[in-house]
Amino acid sequence: MQEKSLVVYYSRTGTTKILAQNIITYTWADSEEILDMKKRKWFRWYLRSGHDAAHKRLTTIQLPTFDPSTYDHIYIGTPVWDFGMSCAIRTYIHTYRTKFPPKISFFCTMRKESAREVFQEMTLSTWIAPFSCISYTQKEIQSWMFKERLSALLGGSIIP
Predict the structure, then answer these.
(1) CATH number for the segment(s) 5-159
(2) pTM for the complete prediction?
(3) Nearest-angstrom CA–CA distance, 13 and 9
């Protein structure tokens, strides 16, 4: 019997969404895009987003559709903002962490930063040691080079 999986992600520019959609395709998972109710598209809001992330602020998100407690495995994805996770994913984790199953995986997209701090923050925030973690640069996603390493996330390895 195939495990029931949920991919939860936030994507401001669409880069993290591309990765999430590929994970969904390979795992037959349900998809939950987290929507931040705060404006973050324009350059001025982009700068404020990094500031909010650096100060580990929560935000207001749209109520999710799926209950994470009904899944065997959850994949949580975020862009890296100022060496941390996005405010929308931080809010989702903070709100639903008591409902997460014991099997959890993390993924993130970034420009050049290291993902190690983001994965540590996600682990501490969920109270669960991840099954797997993987990070990709924006360049890897745009060139589709990420597909070669995607099996690492799905197979249980940590590749920051």
Answers:
(1) 3.40.50.360
(2) 0.87
(3) 12
